[in-house]
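Memo to structure team: turn this sequence into structure tokens by end of day. - J.P.
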Amino acid sequence: MGDYLLAWRNIWRNSRRSILTILAIVFASGLLVFMLSFQFGAYEDMIDSSVRLSTGHVQVQAEGYQKRPEMHKVIENPSPLLEGIAGLEGVYAVTSRSETFALAAGAERSRGVMVSGVRAGVERRISSLPGQIREGRYLQDGDSDVAVIGALGAERLKIGVGDECTLIGQGRDGSVAATVVIIVGIFRTGIDEFDRSAIQIPFSDFDSVFSMEGSAHRLVIITENLADDRPVAAAVRMMPGVEGLVVLTWDELTPGLRQSIELDLIGGVIMYAILVIVVAFSILNTFFMAIFERTREFGVLMAIGTKPLRLVKIMLLESLAMTCVGLAAGMVLGVAATLFFSYYGISMGDSSELMAQYGLADRLYPRLSVMSILIGPAIISVVTFITALVPALKIVSMRPVAALRG
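Reply from structure team:
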């Protein structure tokens, strides 16, 4: 106990320097907690926006469909599988979708589009698209011979709400598939490629027009939490009726999104490393100065029989005490800032258009997690210990006579 009290008293022998060192640790740990929470929250928003717009957290497909979508690669009679998946733990909602490329023609122009057959009632629960209708309305249960189209696609075809659009494609059986639909809604997601090419029609219309005979191309699953995707995928793979099908998670469905997150995380790690290095130099300076100032004191203590390793222990205890105080205050500060901004959000200002390209809102919300709270302080604690150990070990090489001479 005496060594702990001695170390604590030694900290305040030069209170100004100790306070500045503690404040550096407070700033670094608090900033790391907040920035990691902000970064992880932004990633979750990006992933959630992407999966709710199109892919879902988990998908079931025919083998080979992901690499080469073809009309004949279908899930036969998906109803029993849909019912089984809906009852799994962690599943929020599940639906079936069908899709194909077709030629869309308005009164003046024609363009290639991706036509999707969707179940309107379930889509309202799992998709963000119904909330992004800018003109007209979204599809409803019981609709027939109607469609919603992206804003850029409507501009290219020169059609609007209430206009007719002819769709011509190929049915599952190889026959020519054609229908005329009335545009009842125009959506804008901010993702140009999607807004340019996507058209949605009722699932029943798609089934009859494209000769699907009750089959589907994708079973799209939304989980209750992002972390549930892999457990749900594993549970689906164990279900009867999945033979010959593949189960994919969101990162396998959208590898580009995963890679962009990994790239951004690397940039964040570099910035955090620079911050930790600055704190490490602050600690290093503090303890080198402490050893220079107390060289004669160490010489006296060793001359009266104090072992050098005990002096090293006291120096490390000083480092530990300052680190603990700084980390505790920094974590409280970081958590408080995160909770504040997780409620009010952080406005992106002029970057809102860029955020829209990722399907994000103009405000981002940090999210606290065990990882965001502990990763930064844990790294700082390890770095500060190693940084304090380097100058402290100089005491071992000291000779009492030389130290007494200062």
